[in-house]
Amino acid sequence: MRQMLGPAEALGAPVMLEVACRRYLCVACKAVVLVVPSTMLAGRRYSASAIAQALALFGLEGQSPAKIRGRTSPDKIVGATASTGWASIDRWCDAVRSGNLFPEARACRRRLGCVRGAIPPTKASTVPMPPRSAHHC
Ligand SMILES: [Zn+2]
After folding, report:
1. pLDDT exceeds cutoff 70 at 118
2. How far is the CA of 32 from the centre of ligand 1 (A)?
């Protein structure tokens, strides 16, 4: 079981989900494959859909990080710093910009009012889609 944070449905209340994961042993090469829900991201506590929604609320709707935190994080105990912002938004923006999160995402070609943390519109139409990682043997 692993924990995954964020709304269970679009614009729903944020929750902490206990998610069942399964391990499979490849009989050909003895590799162990961990199978998780498609919205679970390696090394991240929040679901992909939660992060995508948070980035949309931030970049497209211009909502404040503190408000987005309330809509994304099930943790209701907020520290002094988190009451005015949310560092996760900045980390996720940096990760998307550097290609470490949602590498298949393309830059939005429209220029919107709130562009803090937005991906610069560079050659968006020429970025190839990376192949999905999978186990092939
Ligand atoms: Zn194999």
Report:
1. no
2. 8
